[in-house]
Amino acid sequence: MSARITLHTTARILRQLRHDPRTIGLLLVVPALLLTLMRYVFDSQPAIFDRVGVIMLGVFPFVAMFLVTSVAMLRERTTGTLERLLTTPAHKLDLLFGYALAFALAAAVQAAVAAGLAYALLDLTTAGSAWTVAGLAIANAVLGMAIGLLVSAFARSEFQAVQFMPAFVLPQLLLCGLIWPRDQMAGWLEKISNVMPMTYAVDALIEVSHHADATATMWRDVTVVVGCIVVALLLGAATLRRRTA
Hints:
Blueprint lengths: L2 H16 L2 H21 L4 H33 L2 H6 L5 H29 L9 H22 L6 H11 L1 H6 L11 H7 L3 H14 L5 H24 L6
Helix pairs in contact: 1-5, 2-3, 2-5, 3-5, 3-6, 3-7, 3-10, 5-6, 5-11, 6-10, 6-11, 10-11
């Protein structure tokens, strides 16, 4: 692997993101607005916002990064940029990790902005530290990025990339414990939720919201999330082809 190629790819993607105001708005403004809306939906019951808001700090970045990454990566494929890069001596992993690093940096900024807003202006209260929640929010955003990179390989247009969201993201939202406790679901649904990455991302945030110190369960959840990120990136590298459709 070549660090120079990886960093060059990262810099190129970051320049593209910087000159795309719609993407910047989706990454930074939309999650902040949705958190603010949720805060005032539960204005008379702040305890509910504390319970749901901390989960949304992971869910919103996950969804936004999934959309942005899958569409941006597909654009690289369909415009021929990726094909041209693959004809050079660059290794697939050099390119993929370059994309991943760029989107991971964007994810970190996005999650930091959302967490800062929630704690500083929206009075979010958790037993654990705001820094831990922010770190988990960044991990969730990176998870969305990694899955988005992988899913982009199976789409032929930007519209198809967006269509994958109901297939890959919505089931995880429904079964991760956000809407209803997983242990109160039908047994077969709970088993399905046990193999979904977002389940562990949400569980980690719930642990921090309830406990002042890091728990063994939280570290287990973080380990699963990191493992899913690595697996998604490696599978994404395997899908890179030298010829675009």
